[in-house]
Amino acid sequence: MSAKSSYLTNKLIDWFWRGQTFAPPATLYFGLLTTTNGLRSNSTAYALNNTISVVANDGKTHLYKCTTAGTTAAAQSTLYPGVANEVIVDGTATFTEQNSALKSNTGLVEVSGTGYARVGVVASLTNFAGTQAAASTTVSTGTNGTTSNNGTITFGSPTSTWGNVWAIAVFDASTAGNLLEWGGLSASKTINNGDAAPSIAISAFTSQEDN
To answer: Nearest 5°: CA angle at 176, between 174 and 177?
Structure first.
């Protein structure tokens, strides 16, 4: 499941409610988000502004930034509820959940290792499912407000270590551009030099409009 950036939310509001022109990107570019320090570790020292991924109590993977340097507790336990922008005291360190920073496109770190590039997928009925069913290719008629990818999205083969990947992101350009949406993985994954090319399985990435 993905969350929308403030950029995309503002464009949609201005288009629907305020009569402004908005041309959605013809191609959506999928990228991978990483952290500076990987998955949270027990009894580990973190410096100010280090970022980590945490599988929180809500079962989702979140990005947290170290806002007070220190050493984490001996066990994660139930320290992290997974609430947007929550501040967590973890041992002698403090971490802040980065939802607002991600929405404003200021808190993300994208993979930059050798062999990595965003993957473009043309926005079309063929490539993304209608709301009526996964893998459907006709105009949406469903009631769940959800679409997903109809084809496997495969990245390049890593020829260097890409680090701990915690989320999938969607942009409107092959480089730079605007963040549109992102979604945390069910479990973060470290991608090393020589690993198989990472991929997003059919229907694994979903985007929902509340209705």
So the answer is: 80
